[in-house]
Amino acid sequence: MRAAPSPPPARPSARPRRWLLHGGRPTSRFLIRRRFAVRVHHPENVPRRGGVVLAANHIGWADGPLLAIFGPRPVHALTKVEMFTGPLGAFLRTCGQIPLDRFHVDRAAIRACVQVLARGGAVGIFPEGRRGPGDLSRFHRGPRTWPW
Question: Which end of the chain is more exposed for a tag (fewer CB within 10 A), N or C?
Fold first, then answer.
């Protein structure tokens, strides 16, 4: 007898939450800077208003959280859907992160990003699709493959 396949992780609504993303950033910055010397380079290059997409190198496991916490604006980062299980998943949803199915066209993630941008928010992406050396030598095909 085969085991039943596990259900897919619960998807949040198409509109990510924002309260912890906005309210928890100062406290998180304070706590992280007590232990690590974090520097933000050229925050003046990020527009203060309007929708913006921040593309970053993905070289370590902390890149997403650091982008969301230390970015010049609160960032809704695309996060692999596998992370949205258990307590971590609830925390990521509360922080306003956007689950992304990296192996299939994910229209819910696209809609969520468009809604964030339409509200004048910031969306964080990692074009390499996974952690790597940070030399941007490999990209996913991206929007060209989306069937609009």
Answer: N
What's the total number of domains in the chain?
A: 1
Q: Is residue 124 part of a domain?
A: yes
Identify whether 36 is part of a domain.
yes
Calculate the alpha carbon distances from 32 to 28, 58, 59, 85 in Å.
6, 19, 19, 25
Alpha-carbon distance of 83 to 60, in angstroms, equals 15
Nearest-CA neighbor of 79 among 39, 91, 135, 40? 91
The verdict on residue 126 lying in a domain is yes
pLDDT in tens, 62-114: 777 888 888 888 889 888 899 898 898 888 888 888 999 888 888 999 999 99
pTM: 0.71
